[in-house]
């Protein structure tokens, strides 16, 4: 089953928006025609080729998708997963999960950014070929499973089993040849074997390298926000709006370049003879003096209406992106406390749902890794079940109002514990418990603050 080309192009477009590459960074070289330049700038119907090329050279891209996904991943990282692992090989895998020295928590943070932008990602749980005989040598040689993230736009073909899991997946890759040049290849993984071939369509007969494995499952795992592969997530809308912002900002800059400069007007009296316009135009400057008769010359400026309209449109796009990205750090002044609380609830719900998907993925990762090693998996893996993000300043105001209104001590202490949990939720659990106990042991007599 092949992914539709339109969907592959959409994944590639989202990747460009995430990393600011491709059409969001058009490179118009002197000897390159516009037809050969990949760009997301749309040409005006009445725009000349010269102006279109100039607009491409002056275009700049503001990345909204990367901060939104990074912020989302940062919220998840505030509550790292809890793991109970006794096997030394799996413990070493947690410390170095990608064969590059990155821990699993660091790897997950980068993986979440890519997955949240697209809505899905693939993950290969691979194993080195050379396996020493004893465990100590395995650890010293780093001969245990490692993870490789695979973007869905690289997928060439795939098959799902009756449970909706991958049975086979083929994806494009590159291999550096003996001459130092990269050549395209295709890597294929099934629930029984793997191979590498030249050419796009998976064909075991075209393999020049490969082998069998006894895993019983495909070592490539699919992660999606909804559970169905393939799919596009909600943050993909930010990529679409980023393209509109990219064009609107470029169009506004073109208006400013064409209309911002003021013009000097000089009214010539009807009875004045022998007036040479070209001579006066050449003589006017900041280093000399202009002599005139009758009305004095004045500067006229073009109207700011078009540029103002574009600025308003750009602000509307930014606000829409903030809503989609569930941005709550800098709320607007007109936003009520109830509306802000709803936005926090929406973000907390999205974080909880994503964390449960990631917990399921990590369990499957360790299942495949344990099959590679022929051992039992971890005893326990648990991601956070809730993310109580809230506006700390608003919660402090609620506490002060409770104190001023004379609420019972138990209610005030409960609100204080809520604030402690919000402020120190990412700290060590024992430290958080000590802080909560200190609030509980406080005197119930809390004096109301002076208004």
Describe the structure.
This protein has 451 residues and is an alpha+beta fold. It has a domain at 390-451. The chain is 44% helix and 15% strand. The chain contains 13 helices and 12 strands. The chain has helices at 5-19, 49-58, 65-77, 88-95, 104-118, 135-141, 236-259, 277-283, 305-324, 337-373, 392-405, 409-424, 429-440, and strands spanning 82-84, 120-126, 146-150, 155-160, 166-176, 182-190, 193-197, 207-212, 220-224, 263-265, 298-300, 380-382. A 5-stranded antiparallel β-sheet has the order 4-5-6-7-8, with no helix packed on it. β4 and β5 (166-176) form a beta hairpin. α12 runs antiparallel to α13 (429-440). It is flat, with a radius of gyration of 31 Å. The N and C termini lie far apart (69 Å). Mean pLDDT is 84; it is low at 443-448.
Largest sheet: 5 strands, antiparallel
Number of helices: 13
User: Strand order, biggest sheet?
Assistant: 4-5-6-7-8
Share of helix, binned: 40-55%
Structural class: alpha+beta
Kindly provide the radius of gyration, computed on alpha-carbon positions and rounded to a whole number of angstroms.
Answer: 31 Å
3D shape: flat
Please indicate the percent range of residues in DSSP E strands (runs of 2 or more).
5-15%
Distance between the termini: 69 Å
What is the average of the pLDDT values?
84
Summarize the helix and strand pattern as letters: HHHEHHEHEEEEEEEHEHEHHEHHH
Residue stretches low in confidence (pLDDT < 50, at least 5 long) are 443-448
Q: Assembly type of the shown chains?
A: single chain
Number of E strands: 12
């Amino acid at each position: 089953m092949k992914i539709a080309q339109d969907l592959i192009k959409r994944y590639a477009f989202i990747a460009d928006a995430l990393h600011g590459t491709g059409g969001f960074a058009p490179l118009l070289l002197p000897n390159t025609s516009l037809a050969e330049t990949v760009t997301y700038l749309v040409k005006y119907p009445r725009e000349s080729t010269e102006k279109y090329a100039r607009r491409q050279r002056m275009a700049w891209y503001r990345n909204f998708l990367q901060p939104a996904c990074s912020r989302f991943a940062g919220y998840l990282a505030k509550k790292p997963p809890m793991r109970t692992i006794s096997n030394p090989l799996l413990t070493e895998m947690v410390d170095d999960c990608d064969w590059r020295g990155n821990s699993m928590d660091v790897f997950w943070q980068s993986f979440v950014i890519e997955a949240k932008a697209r809505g899905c990602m693939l993950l290969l749980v691979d194993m080195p070929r050379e396996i020493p005989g004893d465990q100590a040598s395995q650890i010293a040689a780093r001969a245990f499973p490692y993870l490789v993230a695979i973007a869905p736009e690289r997928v060439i073909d795939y098959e799902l089993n009756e449970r909706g899991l991958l049975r086979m997946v083929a994806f494009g890759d590159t291999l550096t040849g003996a001459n130092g040049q990269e050549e395209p290849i295709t890597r294929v993984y099934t629930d029984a074997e793997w191979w590498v071939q030249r050419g796009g369509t998976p064909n075991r007969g075209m393999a020049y390298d490969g082998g069998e494995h006894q895993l019983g499952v495909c070592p490539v795992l699919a992660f999606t926000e909804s559970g169905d592969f393939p799919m596009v997530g909600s943050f993909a809308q930010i990529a679409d709006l980023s393209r509109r912002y990219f064009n609107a900002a470029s169009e506004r800059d073109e208006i400013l370049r064409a209309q911002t400069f003021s013009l000097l007007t000089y009214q010539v009296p009807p009875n004045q003879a022998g007036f040479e316009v070209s001579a006066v135009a050449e003589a006017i400057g900041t280093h000399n003096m202009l002599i005139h008769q009758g009305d004095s010359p004045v500067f006229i400026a073009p109207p700011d209406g078009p540029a103002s309209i574009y600025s308003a449109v750009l602000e509307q796009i930014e606000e829409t992106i903030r809503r989609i990205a569930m941005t709550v750090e800098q709320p607007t002044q007109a936003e009520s406390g109830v509306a802000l609380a709803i936005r926090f609830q929406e973000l907390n719900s999205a974080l909880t749902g994503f964390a449960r998907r990631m917990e399921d993925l990590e369990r499957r990762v360790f299942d495949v890794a344990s099959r590679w090693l022929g051992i039992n998996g971890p005893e326990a893996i648990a991601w956070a079940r809730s993310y109580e993000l809230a506006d700390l300043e608003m919660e402090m105001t609620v506490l002060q109002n409770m104190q001023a209104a004379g609420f019972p001590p138990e209610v005030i202490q409960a609100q204080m514990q809520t604030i402690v949990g919000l402020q120190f939720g990412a700290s060590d659990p024992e430290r958080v418990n000590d802080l909560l106990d200190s609030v509980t042991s406080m005197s119930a007599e809390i004096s109301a603050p002076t208004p």
